[in-house]
Amino acid sequence: MRIYLSRPHMSGHEEARVAEAFASNFVAPIGPQLDAFEVRVAEYLGGGLHCVALSSGSAALHLALRIAGVGSGDEVWISSMTFAGGIFPLNYMGARPRFFDLNPARWTLDVDLVEEQIELAAREGRLPRAILPTELYGQSAAIDRLESLAAHYDVRLIVDSAESLGASMEGDRKAGTGGDASILSFNGNKIITTSGGGMLVTRHREWADQARFLATQARDPAPHYEHSTFGYNYRLSNICAAIGLGQMEVLDTRVVRRREIFARYHAALTQPGVEFMPEPEALYSTRWLTALTIDPEQTGVTREDVRLMLLDYQIEARPLWKPMHMQPLFAGAPYHGSGVDERMFADGLCLPSGSDMTDDQQDEVIERILAILGK
Ligand SMILES: *Cc1c(COP(=O)(O)O)cnc(C)c1O
């Protein structure tokens, strides 16, 4: 049987909730499960936050950018190493990315670089409209520092927490609580899933109200359809929310399992030339995907050798995200950094990490990798 990178993992708590949604005929993007799912996530994240359930994480980011006032030609400062869905909404808005490297100790947006550049930009009167750090592979960005910078320069902070629901950061603060808004994803391959879905989490009530308004075709109060602006069809189906309610029951145990998988890989595969994604002490990552780098000089094999060998055995592994400043789509966009992300892309690999993977399956992955490493 094929071993996948990260598959949907149902818990047994979902079907009864979906059945309730059916029984009450709330099968469209409105209903008690949808309301309850938003409340449940807000409670999990811990106080003072508003949640709006949406059809995807990308939709959540699109709305966040729109509400932040990101317009055509505005700059958004973003970690270059990210996933398509975490940046394409900039293109929808006609915004321009300025790319930043990763901090090698954390594998998230290098805040020293951002600080250096934002001082310069402020002096030259060309501040970005928003800063958008990605919480790569489930590790929180340096949110406290980014929040102070954003407040100091009066720019919006939107955090891409699509991979980090269930993680926590300095001060035991949960991932997904940062900035003006954070976005979550419940895509099939994430920590928990609604089959497909996302969420906007914000501390501003007006942002949440605005997100609900824009996500339901921007209908002004009137008996007929009255529009003073354009909107989107972005709400999450009540049926999908019912799945999400079931999945919330197991969120923490899913994270524990992903971390256990990481720990087993780490114990078995650590050797000169093989380096795992670090986790600074104050952080608790979801370890959404186990990410490591393989130095070809020290190990005698490239990450592609390893990936293709695994594929021969029906085991799915994947290179790390290709930095966006290296993508043809963003050719010529400004980039600040020393190529930490470029080297990570060259040597980096994500191993099968689904919470439903068995120990036997993982042992097979480990054996195959040890064999090619010659150990
Ligand atoms: C999954 C993901 C998204 C987008 O979420 P979708 O629900 O797939 O639209 C955005 N950013 C990152 C980093 C992701 O991993």
Brief account:
The chain has 13 helices and 16 strands. The protein is α/β, with parallel strands linked by helices and 375 residues long.
Task: Present the secondary structure layout.
Blueprint (H helix, E strand, L loop, with lengths): L13 H10 L8 H14 L4 E5 L2 H11 L7 E5 L8 H5 L3 E5 L1 E2 L4 E2 L1 H13 L6 E3 L10 H11 L2 E5 L7 E2 L3 E2 L6 E5 L12 E5 L2 H11 L22 H11 L2 H19 L4 E3 L13 E5 L1 H4 L3 H10 L5 E2 L15 E2 L3 H8 E4 L7 H15 L2
Parallel strand pairs: 2-3, 2-6, 3-15, 6-7, 7-10
Antiparallel strand pairs: 1-11, 4-5, 8-9, 10-11, 12-13, 13-16, 14-16
Helix pairs in contact: 1-8, 2-8, 3-7, 5-6, 9-13, 11-13
Distance between the termini: 25 Å
CATH superfamily of the largest domain: Type I PLP-dependent aspartate aminotransferase-like (Major domain)
Rg measurement, Å: 21 Å
Shape: globular
Mean pLDDT: 97
In the predicted model, the low-confidence regions spanning at least 5 consecutive residues are: none
Structural class: alpha/beta
Strand count, sense and barrel status of the largest sheet are: 8 strands, mixed
CATH fold description of the largest domain: Aspartate Aminotransferase, domain 2
Heteromolecules bound: pyridoxal-5'-phosphate
What is the number of beta strands?
16
Word description of this protein:
It contains 13 helices and 16 strands. The chain has helices at 14-23, 32-45, 57-67, 88-92, 111-123, 143-153, 205-215, 238-248, 251-269, 296-299, 303-312, 340-347, 359-373, and strands at 50-54, 75-79, 96-100, 102-103, 108-109, 130-132, 156-160, 168-169, 173-174, 181-185, 198-202, 274-276, 290-294, 318-319, 335-336, 348-351. The strands form four sheets. The chain has an eight-stranded mixed beta sheet with strand order 1-11-10-7-6-2-3-15, sandwiched between helices. Helix 3 packs across helix 7. The radius of gyration is 21 Å and the shape is globular. The two termini are 25 Å apart. The mean pLDDT is 97. The structure holds pyridoxal-5'-phosphate.
